[in-house]
Here is the input.
Amino acid sequence: MNQEVRIMVNYKGKKRGLENTRNEPMKNKIIKLFVIWEILIYTSNSSLDSIYAQSAMTNVSARHCTNLNGKWQVIIDPTGAGDWRQVWQEKKPEKKTDFIEYSFEGGPSLNVPGDFNSQMTELKYFEGTVWYKKTFNYNLNKDKRLFLHFGAVNYLANVYVNGNLLGKHEGGFTPFQFEITNAIQKGENTIVVRVNNQRLKDGIPGLGYDWFNYGGMTRDVNLIETDNSFISDYFIQLKKHSSNEVKGWVKLNGNRLLQDVEIRIPELNIDFKTKSNNEGLAEVKFSSRFDLWSPQNPRLYKIIVQCETDTIIEEIGFRSIEAKGSKILLNGKPVFLKGINIHEENPMREARAFSESDALILLTWAKELGCNMVRLAHYPHNEYMIRLAEKMGIMVWDEIPVYQQIEFSAPGVTDKMDLMMREMVSRDKNRCGVIIWSLSNETNPSPSRDNALINLTDKCRHLDSTRLITSVINDENYKNNVLNVWDTLYRHFDIISLNEYLGWYVPWQGRPSDIKWNLAVKGKPVIISEFGGEALYGSNYGPKDEAASWSEEYQEQIYKDQVAMFGTITDLCGVFPWLLADYRSPGRMHPVFQNGWNRKGLISDRGEKKKAWYILKSYYGSIKNTY
Ligand code: GCU
Here is the structure.
């Protein structure tokens, strides 16, 4: 293993110290710490008893993978007894008088990927621990390394290989990995994963949120074999404000960090050559005349990222996105974002979406509605969504679940926010379809919130200066048909994003077309990141003009009124109705109209289009963008 600085982290992601394998002066250590921390290093597989998971290598699908999807044996553990019974050790009776009060053998199994709530009736509302087990055979050559990669596990994951704890990960919507080169044996190996989806007061999200808490190993699991030294990460996108100059980097990991590095784009006759430094970092800088990506022309190029010991082939698009005054410019031209909010759920399966086919259903609906963008609420969705959206010419709003009630001043919470943001940016930074990083939704104003989000915004901008950064606010106030929009944070963001539910949670105080918007922060693009109201498809339970009937006509009128208002808002650059499809949320408890579903979808849980769908489709059809 290369002589690299190892930052030892404890479970909560707090840095515990700095172990250096060379006697270097402290100043060098700090420099290494900064460089390596910025590029999301890998913690080598060390003897540390409980290291935090490594940030995942980029572009897993292009690597030498052994997929571990399929049936995993499980032990359902509602009281947490598996912790003190140490089920990961899989003890077996030795003497005639021995007996063991747990076993994976003879028990149920669950599909991975997939939430556990939708797979067994007794798990429908389960919030607790489920132990997963998978065995695999692997013969690893001595000049190779092996990593265990998880697309996501909701919410806490403890990962064991052959009875030994590899480490832990917190957060239900971002990838992570462990190096298991030295943890596996020739022949059969066993992985045990302790998954716990209990909501935490100091979690991200916290205790309360308006979506279903699907627990489990909700995304793909892969073994990734690499060379001793390999390409662990890279960033290849247009420089901010440029339509022809690429500025990025390639990061190597392993014992040969000084290598020749090459980026090739055959269609453009680009063959950029450089060398990595003794940190394994190579700067990338080249120019070309690109056929720029846009919703009209979702052009992707085959890119070959190569060093002497590794080659990664990837499809990457090039486009520029910027906020200029109160406009959003895509490739230098003003664009109106015709958005829609989507939760990561296939309503017809009543389950967490995780596959390419789920992504195709959701994004095809969005396309049919006339959208050019999706807000993936309120957390990073699976990578199939991001990659398919890019191919379909749909821009993406990528968000971390810093949602409503967050304990910003509790120990470790800002570290968790920081790590979750880094894991989201690390995974999606090469996806040109992603144009907005959103760092929170509807948090309550407070000094601790402001400090946390201002710091996080700065760090996000430092990691990726090429995209727009925002947080969604909803503390606007509405008086005498004037909507006063303000928040201490707005000046830190590239765009002003707000949720407003005029016509549903907030009755109109006058004609929608007479409303005045009073923006405290002027000269920035304004996005309505949520609006809408509920309707039960086909509801005929009462007067159509009363909210309590959950009628489609009531929802339809909300959309008509909102569209009438949009025309009065200067600097409006985009709207994102809440939301594409009805989705499960246990707090929505009316037994007739909701029955555990949030009914603000434009599509019902059976895929039926409500009347409001057609209002929005017509509005989007009337807006012409020139890409
Ligand atoms: C909020 C929130 C959503 C929620 C929606 C609603 O604005 O951002 O997550 O589901 O309102 O009340 O339906």
